[in-house]
Design the sequence.
């Protein structure tokens, strides 16, 4: 009887779920060093990043070739549009290594989400965004303490122009906003964008497979539309990958700028 029911049932559509972010273990199952597809994405992104910048900078020429020019454009973008624009030349050069590392690390790990066979971003589990947010948080505190502890505390907790009876209330709000909520929002902004992007891509392409190969007749035509949406969303995900790397680096630079500012 169950066989007849199964035989008369049509194909079923299985949408993506949060289980996508708990992939099967590839290596070292049952140990603290379990290696999954997401770890593979992170490893590939790191290797690609190191290889590209090593090849682009190992034989620097006064008149750069095409590949060296692309690498220098990447360096110049972070240096000019993030570090120097927000922090000035002196502080920008001081904190450039951390900003450069954040931008390109996030960018390359984000882009693994559209690589066939991997199809998941290295930043789509909380460990990576959280680690980067902690580094950003520590850099912000270091920059402020380096400028001067009293100056840093005053700027962070006691903005100018606040009525006396509201000073401590505002100080509590500023403490929560600056030292508690800030690293949380940095983490969640990057994490949620990568999770949603992955789920949307999987949804479009699973739907395409379902309409084209699971159904017949006019229903198959819908697969053309979902496939087109999937390809368009893939291009959109490239933009999101770049934008999220840029936003994270910019916010880190802004936090550093607030820490070293004379008054705000």
Sequence:
């Amino acid at each position: 009887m169950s066989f007849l029911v199964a035989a008369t049932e049509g194909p079923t559509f299985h949408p993506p779920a949060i289980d996508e972010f708990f992939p099967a273990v590839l290596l070292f199952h049952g140990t603290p060093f379990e290696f999954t597809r997401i770890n593979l994405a992170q490893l590939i992104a790191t290797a690609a990043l190191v290889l590209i910048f090593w090849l682009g900078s190992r034989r620097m020429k006064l008149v750069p070739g095409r590949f060296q020019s692309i690498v220098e454009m990447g360096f110049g973008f972070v240096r000019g549009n993030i570090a120097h624009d927000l922090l000035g030349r002196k502080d920008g050069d001081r904190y450039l290594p951390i900003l450069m590392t954040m931008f390109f690390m996030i960018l390359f790990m984000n882009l693994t989400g559209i690589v066939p066979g991997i199809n998941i971003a290295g930043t789509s589990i909380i460990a990576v965004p959280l680690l980067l947010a902690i580094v950003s948080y520590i850099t912000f505190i270091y920059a402020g303490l380096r400028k001067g502890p009293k100056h840093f505390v005053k700027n962070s907790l006691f903005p100018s122009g606040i009525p006396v009876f509201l000073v401590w209330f505002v100080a509590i709000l500023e403490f929560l906003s600056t030292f508690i909520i800030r690293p949380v929002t940095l983490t969640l902004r990057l994490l949620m964008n990568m999770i949603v992007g992955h789920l949307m891509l999987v949804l479009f392409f699973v739907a395409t497979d379902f309409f084209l190969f699971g159904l017949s007749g006019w229903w198959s035509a819908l697969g053309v539309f979902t496939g087109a949406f999937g390809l368009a969303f893939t291009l959109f995900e490239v933009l999101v990958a770049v934008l999220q790397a840029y936003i994270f680096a910019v916010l880190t630079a802004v936090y550093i700028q607030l820490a070293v500012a004379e008054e705000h």
